[in-house]
Amino acid sequence: MNDSEKEEPLPGLEEQLKDMLRKANMAFMTPSQAQPAPEAAEGGPDEEEEDEDARLKAIREFALRPRDIRDYLDRFVIGQDEAKKVLSVAICDHYNHVRRWMDNPDVRQDEYAKHNIILLGPTGVGKTYLVRCAARLIGVPFVKADATKFTETGYVGHDVEDLVRDLVKASDGNTELAQYGIIFVDEIDKIASQSAPGSKDVSGRGVQINLLKLMEETDASLFSQTDLIGQMQAIMDMQRGKGTRERTINTRHMLFIVSGAFDKLGDLVRRRVSSSPIGFRHDTGDKKQEGSAFLRLAETKDFIEYGFEPEFIGRLPVRVVCNGLSVDDLERILLNSEGSVLKQYRWDFEGYGIDFRADKAAVKRIAEKAHSEETGARGLMTVIERIFRGYKFELPSTAIRSFELDEAAVDDPVAALAALLQNKESARREMLEREIDQFAAEFAEQHGLALTVDKAARELIIEMCVERDRSVRGFCEEHFRDLEYGLKLVARNTGQTKFRISKSFVKNPSEVLSKKIAESFKGEG
């Protein structure tokens, strides 16, 4: 066999691989992704490269100051002033070093201890939101995952290197950009290797060790052990003579931020400081705030006792404690935060042409109810959804275009909605009147047959819609389901294109329509 015969690929191999790759990709695509991609306009690839270069340029020219980041976070996250300051300084230190490393080859051999961060605090206080907003401001890729989904081997559950692969995906495959991204791991306290006395949670310890490798510096694989699609793509690239693709990415400049509630860590610290010779007493009357106070006193030995490996917690030098949210904090979130849930619901209602306002007493009451949920800012969504679920269903089908939310409506939204609908009954009937005209106009446009609905028929249709709690469209499509077929038969036999809908027709459409059809065949239409 000569050399040319050796280099010739197996017949049809590339076509088979293409087909396998296409089917594998299609299995994971959403319907919109499965649509054929439009042909790129001239300069499309250049524009993509420009976008990627712009993002890298922003990192290379990083010039933000801690106060800049703090001020930006203030727009989205209420409170947590100390956490914002510490986080802002750590992020600035990290990306200032990255900028120097990119610009000056002389510093690339210098040792540098990364400012990896651990955030402590109860759920719903804004830990994830703080980091996500900071990443958006800087313009770096960001990924978030829960520590509980990882296992030591990755065969069952996820491999920690999936974090790095997800960061590459968030960078649209740009590995150069991905190496400067932020990886956020939530619920890190759940993998502390505490267990029964005399035993060890091997899985939790193994995940910590694997995360530790990523946080320090390692070359992480871009292909998981089960990444068949990636392996097939690599084979296809080799067949086309493109050579081998990058298979690893270095994690040296990735910023790692982990977080957790650490519910029991405060108890460990309390016991330690209470048994000290000097003693410690801290009583705020608020258990959440008291817990935050003890978390601020946490030392490395407390984290180790909690169940973390010394090497792991040692690679998280920046420790930030977030406070539990008070009623006043929750009220300020509703009123001042750019991501306020109340604003989101206002946008939802605007989609139906409806405007609402909530008075001060209502906002205060929502904050109080959310605080009792003990889930931080997430409690706001729980309370507001409970209030507005009936409003969102009922009001879009009425003529109501504005309403006001007061304290009584927050406490009893069902009764408040019923009163609102009763007071606006005349407006509702006007709305149904317009829907009847709209139904007749759409019927004429679709079928070329004009309908005239007389006054008595209109009143009966409205009464039946109210009684059955239906829209005019839904009622007519069901009640007059044979209307199109019947009237077209009459029109074909008689040439008639205009029809009157009477009260008797509404009462018994099948009987009246059958009579009209029979008369049309006799030439009596």
Describe the structure.
The protein is an alpha/beta fold and 525 residues long. The chain folds into three domains: 11-21 and 54-321, 3-Layer(aba) Sandwich (Rossmann fold), CATH 3.40.50; 327-423, Helicase, Ruva Protein, domain 3 (Orthogonal Bundle); 427-521, no CATH class. The protein is built from 27 helices and eleven strands. It has helices at residues 3-7, 13-27, 31-34, 44-60, 66-74, 81-103, 127-138, 162-170, 175-178, 202-216, 228-239, 265-274, 287-295, 300-306, 310-314, 327-336, 341-350, 360-373, 378-394, 407-411, 413-423, 425-447, 455-468, 472-479, 483-494, 503-507, 509-521, and strands at 117-120, 142-146, 182-186, 219-221, 248-250, 255-260, 318-321, 355-358, 402-405, 450-453, 498-501. A five-stranded parallel β-sheet has the order 2-3-6-1-7, sandwiched between helices. α2 (13-27) runs antiparallel to α11 (228-239). The radius of gyration is 33 Å and the shape is elongated. The termini are far apart. The model is unreliable at 1-11, 26-45 and 195-202 (pLDDT under 50).
